[in-house]
């Protein structure tokens, strides 16, 4: 009996030793596993697609008062009707293209009770490989004074776009965050206007053209959201959607009438227009996080 008790005590002690060894091994494996944490600076690259919203450009074309008096081949009825024919809304085409660029940002992890959040700022800049615009026109047939052909085209383009945004996210897993974002958007936009007119029949060979190109850097706003997965202690993948609005770019163009017989050159019309630049971005990115190998303590509130 005494030997049986000793055997039982030795067996229990051996079991505790094995369990303790297994627990120590498990703790070692957990401590050596990759740790995801979000606090710190990061930088990366992104690529994706961009498409603009379809808008209408309101074009207003007004005749120059008194132009017909300085050119006997003109009459006010024709110039006034020509201006009216080139006044109205032109439905724009849609900008489509690819974007590529980089981003730089800073994150900070914050805890509220048992929930973990991320707050931060991000700057980015993308080049746009694509184009967009519209090429409709107006044609006016005036049976009393003959055939008057007139057309207007407006072409719009955006060459690059950048943002400066805040980000607020919720950690659905320690290494996965979903976020909303919003802030400043800016970009270089351009617009080209062309107006062509031809009066027929005419013994003077009268025709006119109005051309104008204008570009500027515009600032507006952007908002969107996405998700990010930290697949290693220093690397993460993200996907996001952004809506942007850079506002309108107002400009004007003068139509010059050429009279081939008497070499008259007169400004007959002035057209004003203001296309709007807004649209959508979908992109994916790869970030490198300049953080330490051990996670910082969460700030709890």
Cα Rg: 34 Å
How much is the average pLDDT? 77
Annotation, overall tally of beta strands:
14
The major β-sheet equals:
8 strands, antiparallel, barrel
What is the percentage of strand-forming residues?
over 45%
Structural class: mainly beta
Report helical residue fraction. 10-25%
| SS field, number of helical segments | 3
Q: What is the spatial order of strands in the main beta sheet?
A: 1-4-5-7-8-9-10-13
Poorly predicted regions: 4-16, 23-35, 138-145
Shape: rod-shaped
Cα separation of the termini? 61 Å
The topology string of helices and strands comes to HEEHHEEEEEEEEEEEE
Summarize it.
By secondary structure, this protein is mainly beta. It has helices spanning 2-32, 67-70, 76-85, and strands at residues 40-52, 56-63, 88-91, 96-112, 115-131, 140-142, 146-173, 176-200, 206-232, 235-248, 251-259, 264-273, 276-289, 299-300.
């Amino acid at each position: 009996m005494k030997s049986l008790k000793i055997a039982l005590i030795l067996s229990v002690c051996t079991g505790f030793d094995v369990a303790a060894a297994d627990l120590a091994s498990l703790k070692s494996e957990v401590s050596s596993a990759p740790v995801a944490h979000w606090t710190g600076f990061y930088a990366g690259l992104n690529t994706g697609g961009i498409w603009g919203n379809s808008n209408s450009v309101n074009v207003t074309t007004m005749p120059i008062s008194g132009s017909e008096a300085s050119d006997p081949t003109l009459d006010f009825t024709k110039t006034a009707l020509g201006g009216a024919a080139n006044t109205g809304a032109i439905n724009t085409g849609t900008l489509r293209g690819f974007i590529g660029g980089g981003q730089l940002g800073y994150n900070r992890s914050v805890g509220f009770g048992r929930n973990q959040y991320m707050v931060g700022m991000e700057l980015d800049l993308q080049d746009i490989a694509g184009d967009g615009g519209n090429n409709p026109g107006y044609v006016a047939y005036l049976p009393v004074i003959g055939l008057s052909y007139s057309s207007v085209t407006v072409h719009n383009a955006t060459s690059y776009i950048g943002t400066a945004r805040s980000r607020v996210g919720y950690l659905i897993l320690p290494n996965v965050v979903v976020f909303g974002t919003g802030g400043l958007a800016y970009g270089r936009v351009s617009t080209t206007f062309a107006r062509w007119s031809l009066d027929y029949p005419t013994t003077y060979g009268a025709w006119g053209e109005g051309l104008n190109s204008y570009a500027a850097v515009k600032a507006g706003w952007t908002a969107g959201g996405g998700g990010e997965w930290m697949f290693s202690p220093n690397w993460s993948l993200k996907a996001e959607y952004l809506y942007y609005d850079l506002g309108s770019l107002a400009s004007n163009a003068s139509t010059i009438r050429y009279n081939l017989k008497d070499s008259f050159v007169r400004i007959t019309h002035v057209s004003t227009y203001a296309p709007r630049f807004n649209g959508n971005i979908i992109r994916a990115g790869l970030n490198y996080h300049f953080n330490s190998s051990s996670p910082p303590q969460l700030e709890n509130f």
